[in-house]
Amino acid sequence: MTNDPKTTSSVHPIDVPEDQPPGRLDKYLAGALEDLSRSRLKTLIEEGRLTLDGVAITDPSAKLRPGARYLLDLPAPRAATPEAENIPLSILYEDEHLIVLEKEVGMTVHPAVGNWTGTLVNALLHHCAGQLSGIGGVERPGIVHRIDKDTSGVMVVAKTDRAHQGLSKQFAAHSVERAYLALVRGGPKPKEGRIETRLARSQHDRKKQAVVRDPRSEHGRHAITNYKALHSYGREPGQPVGSPMASMVECRLLTGRTHQIRVHMAHIGCPLLGDPVYGKARTFRKITNKDGETLKDFNRQALHATILGFTHPLTKETLRFETKPPADMQKLIRFLEGL
Fold first, then answer.
1. Which is catalytic among the residues 148, 275, 291, 297?
2. How far is 23 from 44, CA to CA, in rounded Å?
3. Same domain, yes or no, for 112 and 187?
4. Domain range holding 186?
5. pLDDT at residue 32 above 80?
6. What's the burial of 219, exposed, middle or buried (CB within 10 Å: 0-12/13-18/19+)?
7. Which pLDDT tens digit goes with each residue over 110-123?
8. Partners of 115 in the β-ladder
9. Average pLDDT of every residue of the chain
10. Are residues 138 and 275 in the same domain?
11. What's the pLDDT tens digit per position in 240-267?
């Protein structure tokens, strides 16, 4: 297969012989298209890039149709190394070994499908030009932890291999202090506690994480969140005293799994306000305060990484950073105070 570098994608017809035995679609395509791995084909199918008679097929396990012509829209290959981009950053601390910053809402950490540019890595390659010693043999910033695209807050990034290794060991040992502020529906019971589960990719939606229900299962990854309700807002209609409409909860991570806080809070019946994946958006937008205002304009999970504390891997100095939630979340807090 070849792609015209001037185009962003190319369409490849795949004709299935009439006498081809039926089977899984992705398995057949992996054999017919030797340049693409089965996992890569699975991703392309799930992105809706495979069509049959003009209709997108998004299930890799779908049955192959003998005699059919499929069309695969194959994206042009991208450079393996992200490009530097002059994007403003909110720097909290910086030396020759590492950089601590406040990631803004809407910024993805790593380049990926749908976000090849405008990421934190692109910004750091520009900001740290000439200062990176070559993480893993490639001049790039050392990302040791991540924050979701629509979550704001404090992050630390390594500039050198030694700093990267030292920070990675602290995260692996769970010795890094990480606290998040979350605005949730209802209120946790008890008001302070520990959520300990295993998390795995949802069997119903591969974009979601889910709690593994079987306590004996080794499936998924161990996840621990300590939480504490800091404030409560309003009172749930028809419910007894002590049943708030919303709460501010401090969540402290002992592990750092994908979507961990969002999944854990939904698991105990307190989904994050505005969360489009794990929350109930319609219910959330129906909340009205005493001034008749609604929450229709808040369209992301109400989560902010407020505290990050660690030992400097080279100087051994104790560093701790704390930031306030961004303007949109502060506006949401004022709204909740009016319930």
1. 148
2. 19
3. no
4. 177-312+322-337
5. yes
6. exposed
7. 887 677 889 999 99
8. 112
9. 88
10. no
11. 888 899 999 999 999 999 999 999 999 9
Q: Is pLDDT larger for residue 139 or for residue 327?
A: 327
Q: Is 148 a catalytic residue?
A: yes
- Residue 125 near residue 135 (C-beta atoms within 8 A): no
What pLDDT, on the 0 to 100 scale, is given for residue 230?
Answer: 98
Phi-psi region of 316 (alpha: psi -120 to 50; beta: other; left: phi over 0): left
CATH code (residue 71): 3.10.290.10
Give the CB-side neighbour count of residue 190, counting CA atoms within 13 A: 5
Token pair listed for 280:
């109930």
Burial 251-279 (b: 16+ CB within 10 A, else e): bbbeebbebbbbbbbbbbebbbbbbebbb
Alpha-carbon radius of gyration of the chain: 23
